[in-house]
Specification:
This protein is an alpha/beta fold. The chain has nine helices and nine strands. Strands 2-3-1-4-5-6 form a six-stranded mixed β-sheet, with helices on both faces. Strands 7-8-9 form a three-stranded mixed β-sheet. Strand 4, helix 3 and strand 5 form a beta-alpha-beta unit. It is globular, with a radius of gyration of 20 Å. Monomer. It is a peripheral membrane protein. An essential GTPase that binds both GDP and GTP, with rapid nucleotide exchange. Plays a role in 16S rRNA processing and 30S ribosomal subunit biogenesis and possibly also in cell cycle regulation and energy metabolism. Belongs to the TRAFAC class TrmE-Era-EngA-EngB-Septin-like GTPase superfamily. Era GTPase family.
Length: 294
């Protein structure tokens, strides 16, 4: 039996969470077209034969502008040292940016083996993929253990990732029971589902200004009740999330409840309240209360 940790890193919005969900064949990491969607490390587990692969989805590595951003980047950087292998994910349809180079600079600070994953390869010709490999060598270096073109959205190239990861599994014991696909607590999954629906249904600055907190849980034989606070930073944002005649908050609740019921296998009653907490992303006390260890 073998197992190991594989860290998924990259700048924001390159497809790390989409790839994570394909690798474990479960909906775990929340998906959005907004950058900065993932705020914490999320472990997803896949068992194939005698091998247990523990993939770690991380926040996008970036230069932070507030305490929450600092926590997110530090969390991603910590994962570099803890991993047996780093998967450095690039968007193959975009030129390698200073943001990608910033990620590379941090990878170079650790001794962990690293492979480059070129995402969205279905939108590239074979020649463009070869040109991208040359660009990687010129701008990011040539000491990667492999360069693998994939398309996370459709699962193209996933088997090549498993074949590579298998070579770097370092432990002779499994860390998790066979039926686990994550070690994330149920309440944390509930919070992430609600936050995802807000991300998908709002725009502009709203997604980045939202925090979600469960304030009460009551489980009865046939139903579980959740009382949830949604925090924003300005009164105008509160009005947007509630929507005209409460339409948007109702839609958030309906979509969240359906997905949570599918995840935990029981009926859910979800009550959502929207509250203003000015500049919460810069408030150390509030962030620590939400579980961000600064």
């Amino acid at each position: 039996m073998k197992s190991g940790f594989i860290s998924l890193v990259g700048r924001p919005n390159v497809g790390k969470s989409t790839l994570m969900n394909k690798l474990i064949n479960e909906k775990l990491s929340i998906i959005s077209d907004k950058s900065g969607t993932t705020r914490d490390k999320i472990r997803g587990i896949t068992n194939i034969g005698e091998c247990q692969y523990i993939f770690v989805d991380t926040p996008g590595i970036h230069k932070p502008r507030h305490l929450l951003g600092e926590y997110m980047t530090n969390t991603a950087l910590e994962s570099l040292e803890e991993a047996d292998l780093i998967l450095f994910i690039l968007d193959g349809t975009e030129t390698i940016s200073t943001g990608d180079q910033f990620v590379r600079e941090n990878i170079e600070k650790v001794n962990t083996p690293c492979a480059v994953i070129i995402n969205k390869s279905d939108k590239m010709t074979d020649q463009e993929i070869e040109e991208k490999k040359k660009e990687i060598e010129e701008k990011l270096g040539s000491d990667f253990v492999d360069i693998i073109p994939i398309t996370a959205e459709y699962g193209i190239g996933i088997q090549r990732i498993f074949d590579l990861c298998k070579k770097y599994l370092s432990s002779n014991v499994w860390f998790y029971p066979e039926d686990y696909y994550t070690d994330m607590p149920v309440n944390k999954i509930v919070i992430e589902v609600i936050r995802e629906k807000i991300l998908q249904l709002t725009r502009d600055e709203i997604p980045h200004s939202v925090a979600v907190e469960i304030i009460n849980v009551k489980t009865l034989p046939n139903i579980r009740h959740y009382d949830v606070n949604i925090y924003v930073e300005r009164t105008s944002q509160k009005g947007i999330i509630i929507g005209e005649n409460g339409r948007l908050i109702k839609e958030i609740g309906i979509k969240s409840r359906k997905e949570i019921e599918n995840l935990i296998g029981m009926k859910i009653n979800l009550k959502l309240w929207v509250k203003v907490n000015k500049k919460w992303r810069k408030n150390k006390k509030f962030l620590e209360e939400q579980g961000y260890k600064l």
